[in-house]
Amino acid sequence: MKILVLGAGGTGGYFGGRLHEAGANVTFLVREKRGLQLAQHGLQIESPKGNATLKVKTVLAQDVKAEYDIVILSCKAYDLASSIEAIRPAMGPAACVVPLLNGISHIDALDAAFGKARVMGGVCQIAATLTKDGVVKSMIDVHSIIWGAREPSQHTAANALGGAFANAISDWKVSENIMQDMWEKVTFLSTLAGMTCLMRASVGEILATADGRTLMKRYLDSCVAVSSKSGYPPRAPTLERYENVLNSDGSPLTASMLRDLESTGRVEADHIVGFMLGKAREFDIDYWMLTVAYTHLKAYENRRAANRLG
Questions:
Q1: CA 71 to CA 6: how far, in whole Å?
Q2: Rounded to whole angstroms, how far apart are CA atoms 265 and 261?
């Protein structure tokens, strides 16, 4: 099995690097600067699960050929259109893309580009970044990746990818219901991102206010209702876990979107919060908290575009 990973940053660099380390045939599709960095210093991973410096294969966009079985897509949602064009030459007749983006709406774009039969579902959980020196730095001891078939024809490829991950330093699973997994993640992530960005505070700091717990619950309840109306009600153990995390007094937890916002970077407002707001309005579900959070994020984007931050 030949695997192409788009990018060698925090997510793609970590999971692709661990696949390579485990003996899989992995190539990274990178820009020229990153390709030179990897050629000179190797793919460097720093992680609580163990450090590694790996000599990896890379390819530039102009040299990509349709010779891969799996393409792992780990871009930000706002880079989806350009990422689709970057991987298009790699998508031969039998290739499947495994997207690791947050949210749901990218699936429609990928289906339109490549056909549903060649687009699996996928989610991951990792807190990793690419340092200025080109090191993939994992910050906590959580590195999980889940993918699965959306069509019966994808089961063979999904299981073969599991074989490639068999000896990798990651927690992984081939899901039997990947869309359920994806809806559960966006339910939690929209709540965490919407609330921590709106309040510019951690879960614990929000809960320490007079009405923080009530607002957190109202936001989560709206997202749960959206998922349920969409045909994917969160499973009881999953929902209980989310409720515990979002009601943990003193928790320092924030969404990565808040870190992006505080560093004046781009945010996935439309893909995470805007998507859930649109669905809530479509289903006539309480969307007040989603509206306020989304308006806050779009106002931030307007200020950023006008260079009025800071």
A1: 7
A2: 6
- Beta strand pairing call for 96-99 and 25-29: unpaired
Predicted local confidence at residue 238, as pLDDT: 96
What angle (nearest 5°) sits at the alpha carbon of residue 24, between those of residues 19 and 28?
65
Helix, strand or coil, per DSSP, at residue 218: helix
Closest CA to 23 of 117, 163, 123, 147: 163
Total residues belonging to the chain = 310
pTM for the whole structure: 0.93
Q: Read off the pLDDT of each residue in 98-108 and give the average, rounded to a whole number.
A: 95
What pLDDT does residue 120 have? 98
Tokens of 6: 């788009």
**Cα–Cα distance for residue pair 280/218, rounded to 1 Å:** 13
Spatial distance between the Cα atoms of 292 and 203, rounded to a whole number of angstroms: 17
- Alpha-carbon distance of 269 to 154, in angstroms, equals 31
Q: Are 254 and 203 in contact (CB under 8 A)?
A: yes
Domains of the chain: 2-176 (3.40.50.720), 180-305 (1.10.1040.10)
**pLDDT given at position 127:** 83
Q: What is the pLDDT of residue 165?
A: 96
Q: Point out the catalytic residue in the list 76, 137, 185, 279.
A: 185
What's the longest Cα–Cα distance across the chain? 58
Condensed to tens digits (0 to 9), the pLDDT of residues 119-162 reads 999 999 988 889 999 999 988 788 899 999 999 999 999 999 99
Across the range 174-194, mean pLDDT stands at 97
2 beta partners: 25
Does the annotation mark 185 as catalytic?
A: yes
Question: Is pLDDT above 80 for 310?
Answer: no
Q: Residue 274 half-sphere exposure, CB side, CA atoms within 13 Å?
A: 14
Residue with tokens 């490549």: 114
